[in-house]
Amino acid sequence: MEKLEVKGLNHHFGFTEILRDINFTLEKGEVLSIVGPSGGGKTTLLHLCADLLDVEEGSVKNSFASHTFAFQEGRLLPWKNVIDNIALGLLANGEKKAAAIQKSQEIALQFGLEEEDFEKFPKDLSGGMKQRVSFARALVVKPSLLFIDEPFSALDIGLKKELQAILIEMISKKEISILFITHDLMEAIRLSDEILLLKADPGHIVKKFQYDLPQNERDDKYVYSESAKILQDVEIIDTFELELK
Amino acid sequence: MKFALKILKDFPAYLWSGWGAVASILLFIAFWDMGNQIYGDLVLPAPLETFKTLFVMIQDASVIEEIKTTLYRASMGFGISLLLGSALGLIAGFFATASMMSRPIVTILVGMPPIAWIVLAMIWFGMGDETVIFTVIVASFPIIFVGALQGTRTLDGDLKEMADSFNLPWHMKFFDVYFPHIFSYVFPAWVSGLGMAWKIVIMAELLATSDGMGASLAIARSQLDTPTALALVVIMIGSLMVIEYIILEPIKREVELWRS
Question: Are A48 and A60 within 8 A, CB to CB?
Fold first, then answer.
């Protein structure tokens, strides 16, 4: 069984303690989100899980067959056009060039990019388009685990829903497992099976929320009512310093 | 291959965009002719006379021989500093200590006047090829070295991380992630290095050898043969313009298409 297991994870940058005693498990087909205020160590935790940072204390065991990462700022190669950027992961996996281009074009169209955008360099793309390309690049290789850093932050509402719909479809077919970080609670509630609340200084998990209703059955009403509920939670109010004075 | 074809395909459009440059050169020649009418033939020969002299000169085998000699020295010197400068610059860029230590040395190399190098080289190597080639190397090396150093120093850590997250094999990491970035720094440095090499080779020849275009220039000066001197200048500038605008600039445009 593929899974990601994090046990007793601590992390420091110099003398600053970033993360303290993080424990969680992500099973195959599950969606787990980490919410918390900015600067709370969310990105560090995600990078540790994705093996982009070396684990110092504790353990991260990742037995998923493959994983990719969709970065917050896109991180596209500025000297490659849209299609070549998307094809990067496929080519790295040893796929033939023609097949990789073909697949990249298909997923680009699926992600709402136009054919006339294919030859464009990242400098000519809007923020939202860059993020779509970055997303397509991460998903085109069909990873069994996807890491996402603030996935939809630069997207307008319509596009956000479109991309979420694509993910929800993949989730309900059990094609993918996702670990993502966000500061948008509604987004977390719409997509996650479990939400970990990460409190800052140092980052530690203060509470876990479970959502059992399948993602494709969650409508706006469900998301709004659950969001309202979670916003009443003492730990959430405390962590996000929501107290109104 | 695809890249070379694209350069060729865009070449006519590029040439067509050169009319402005042609107009400005013609304007320059008009001012030159005006200077001739004011100061007379001895000080500033007319453009027409200069070009006639030039035409006669390039039919003379001995002049072609001088040009070849100069070309050989310039390309030897530039070639060596291109290889050495790029390689050492890249290596120095990968190590923080090396790049820190190389900075003052580069300042010394850049700050030292080429004329001083020529004097030293004449003492060390005597009059001949070595002196000229050595001077060309020391003059163009620091430019290329700094370009390569900057290229590696400024590699984007975020893109490296991205490359790691997709498990890019080493050859993809090099050709798709590092090389385009480094090249965008090194290539302009090559171009300025070449310009420097071409200027220095003439100066070194003028002072330190008895053959080559620089030496011909010295002879023209001693005989007060202004048309020949100007014709030589036209050859030097003309060849540099051809290399820069016909060969290097189209490549540079394609290479830097992705830049904003």
Answer: yes
